[in-house]
Design goal:
Blueprint (H helix, E strand, L loop, with lengths): L4 E3 L2 E5 L6 H15 L3 E6 L5 H14 L3 E7 L2 H8 L4 E7 L8 E7 L8 H13 L13 E3 L3 H10 L6 H7 L2 E5 L9 H7 L3 E5 L19 H9 L4 E5 L6 E4 L9 H14 L4 E4 L5 H8 L4 E4 L3 H11 L3 E4 L3 E3 L9 H15 L3 H6 L5 E8 L6 H11 L5 E2 L4 E4 L4 E6 L5 E8 L2 H18 L3
Parallel strand pairs: 3-4, 3-5, 4-7, 8-9, 8-10, 12-13, 12-14
Antiparallel strand pairs: 1-2, 2-6, 5-6, 10-11, 14-15, 16-20, 17-18, 18-19, 19-20
Amino acid sequence: MKNLMISVSGVRGIVGEGLTPEVALRFSQAYASEFGPGKIVVARDSRVTGPMLMHAVWSGLMAVGCDVVDIGLATTPTAELVVERPDMAGGLILTASHNPRQWNALKMLGSDGMFISAEKGEKIVQRIQDNSYDFADWDKMGHLIPFNTAAQDHISSILDLSLVDTKKIKEKKFKLVVDCCNGAGGVILPEFLHTLGCDVVFLNREPNGWFPREPEPVPANLGDLCQAVKKHQADLGCAVDPDVDRLALVSEEGVPLGEEYTLALVSAFVMSRQKGDVVVNASTTRAIDDVVKEYGGRVHRTPVGEYHVATKAKQIGAVLAGEGNGGVMLPELHLGRDALVGIALILQYLADQNKPVSELSQAIPQYAMVKDKLTLDFEVDAKAIVSLFDKAHSKDEKTTIDGVKLLFRDSWVHVRASNTEPIIRVIAEAPSEDQARDIVNDMKKEMQMLSKQ
């Protein structure tokens, strides 16, 4: 399994170099052997390689006797909600999320609609290594079951949330500009926002997989959206990634708020309505702590990754969870990142406060975060470099729940090996961008030296 990234999230790689139909077949056979028999939901985002890999996945599942519940081109949160139905045994989603278009991935869900545990993932990998699959007899092969209401069901479930007052949002007649990045958002966001009474200008709506920008919804990739918000005098700009589990916002002034402040704004809204605790990952902005503390709540931090955040949120009964990459989880609906939920809660906040999003954002403590990375060859052990970095900072104040997070008086830096790409992520937050950038550059230089040891 050369040139593949295998983690608790699943398996991903560049199609044709590491990720092939054979890999997709073997993983789906191993997955079905662990989670079958039963119905397995299969979805894909808009990537051009999706249909090719999808058929391999179907074959692998049916060969082990699982029925394939095909929801077709759909968002990740849409698929998660279908998997949560009591008659479903699990789910597989073909999406590489924020990775460039030449990448694809197979994400694996348990019957609860959450990503599978590391232990389950290890069992699946072991089956592949042992070539151990529970193939069904010829007359017990699985069947293909089309499922055509997944998007509509997803929309209805959001409109039924206790925190969402559809009538109040409709009365505001918000004007939005939405960048779908030619991903799965194009199949659900038009109907969703129409139902909320919004006047919407779409950018890159066609779900054809030819991403016109880098798919990660960070400020550097949102120039066209910022210009369009100003041109159309919109109340809000929204950008999603190809599988629509991450949301970034642009103010009515055409200024990107930064994906970290999606969750910070949602936290301010939710905490004003529901008291409780919030779960985020180790790299999420400290602005969350400020907001939650103001309302008497507590922030719990986990390793980076949706599974870790969702598991902790379920354990403590959190009222909100998420990740600073624009991932909003509302446990009332489901324990998965959902950009549609994020949009609904932000619109509700705007409707309740009757203030522009720029004003609401500025009311939250402002920090500057710089996110960078050290790119490595596939054969380089990123975790070994992070371990050396940890030893080099043995006397510094830090946390090690995920990689190494060094804690300074008014800033921090988090260094961790990515689970999805051959890189080491370096994230720093400080009172100013210059200070955060200096910290990141210093840490990258240090790790480059450690990589040569």
